[in-house]
Amino acid sequence: MKRRAFIAGLGVAAVWPLAARAQQPSAMRRIGVLMNRTANDPEASSFVGAFAQGLAELGWTIGRNVRVEYRWGANDPDLDRRYAAELVALAPDVTLAAGTLSVAALQRVTRTLPIVFVTVTDPVGAGFVDSLAQPGGNTTGFMLFEYSLSGKWLELLKQIAPSVTRVAVFRDPANPPGASQFAAIQAVAQPLGVEITPVGVRDASEIERAVTAFARIPNGGLIVTGSASASGYSETIIKLAALSKLPTVFPNRFGVLAGGLICYGPDRIDQYRRAAGYIDRILKGEKPADLPVQAPTKYKTVINLKTANALGLDIPATVLARADEVIE
Prior knowledge:
Layout: H1 2-23, E1 29-35, H2 42-57, E2 66-72, H3 77-89, E3 94-98, H4 100-109, E4 115-120, E5 139-143, H5 149-160, E6 166-170, H6 176-192, E7 195-199, H7 204-214, E8 220-224, H8 228-232, H9 234-244, E9 248-250, H10 253-257, E10 262-266, H11 268-283, E11 299-304, H12 305-311, H13 317-322, E12 325-327
Parallel strand pairs: 1-2, 1-3, 3-4, 4-5, 6-7, 6-8, 8-9, 9-10, 11-12
Antiparallel strand pairs: 10-11
């Protein structure tokens, strides 16, 4: 009896450390995030909130089993390079990169650390992935939209303001997708009878000078392309558009909420939620090379009727019927 009790005791002693280890909390994982906005950008808070929500829905609680390190590149190539190096030095398990410049900066520093991107317009053309179906390497993620979508902004502007014959297009000349978006708009301009003028977004004074000169001739309109730099000056553009009575098309909802006329584009917040899913899969052992690049699944049209009334525009019923949201 004593021998059996002794052997049983040895069995308990052997099993106890295993059970104790099994009850220990899982190791803290680390995610690096390189944003292409400033920390006080109103859009940015919605984006990181959606990302955190997506992680939480998959069982990742910030501070309990995952730590997230943010860096804010503000779409500045120098800041992006600096912060990319900082994040990689922290040795995260995976990184989230917002925008083309952020991905480029991270890939300059590492070709092994997993990278999940969002709001990148042309990941194949930029050299980030081998193909959409088979990314290869250490990078995958979510495309912002195809370049052809940019032409729809001009088509939409002509539908709601048929008298428009001149359009100033705000794009970031330093960002490769900016040139391609401008080219897509230019491709549909001649059939629509519209003259296109490019406007850089290097600083507010450049924008103010350009809009003031542009507005001296009637029948004008504005298009803000999908780049962090252009979106960063939305407030300035909206103010100038209101003063000059210029209808303005934005690529995202936030520009319309702030007073722009209309937007059509992918649901960017949804991309951050979906990115959390890829981050989760990588943390659980999958490789970026095996996760295909995904296109947007949700697009939104938002119209600001208050702005339309101020401009004296009567929005066609067909356009209103397609709207996902109407601000009155």
